[in-house]
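Quick review question:
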């Protein structure tokens, strides 16, 4: 009987701790959502057409902060080392337009090019995957 009562006591205590953990997780989610903003992509796919092997392609993807808080871009990475994205260093204020500049080095990349750029920020929902497409032709 004592063993049975002990089991019930501990089971109730576990549920109580789980409830506290759920509340803390919920509070954290609410804080993250409160600090987020929204983004509208003006450009998310760029087709540079045809370039000759060795040429560099530069493009700036445009986006607008459509939320009520500053938009902070914390990271921008590309699917390969031949593509280098540059994120804005300063927060983008509500209503302002920002840019993610990308430089693609076509050296040794003859054929179809389809590069993906991933952007991390405080926007919710987040940035879509940016794409850079085109054809690299061999030097004649």
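Suggested answer, residue by residue:
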């Amino acid at each position: 009987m004592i063993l049975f009562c002990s089991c019930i006591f501990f089971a109730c205590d576990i549920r109580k701790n789980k409830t506290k953990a759920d509340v803390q997780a919920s509070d954290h989610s609410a804080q993250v959502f409160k600090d987020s903003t929204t983004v509208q992509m003006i450009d998310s796919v760029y087709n540079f057409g045809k370039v000759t092997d060795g040429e560099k392609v530069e493009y700036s993807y445009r986006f607008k902060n459509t939320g009520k808080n500053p938009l902070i871009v914390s990271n921008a990475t590309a699917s390969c080392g031949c593509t280098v994205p540059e994120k804005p260093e300063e927060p983008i204020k509500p209503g302002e337009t920002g840019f993610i500049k990308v430089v693609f080095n076509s050296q040794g990349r003859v054929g179809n090019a389809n590069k993906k750029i991933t952007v991390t920020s405080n926007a919710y929902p987040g940035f879509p995957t940016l794409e850079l497409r085109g054809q690299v032709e061999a030097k004649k």
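Why it works: The beta strands are 39-41, 45-52, 56-65, 73-78, 83-86, 97-105, 111-121, 130-137. The helical segments are 2-35.
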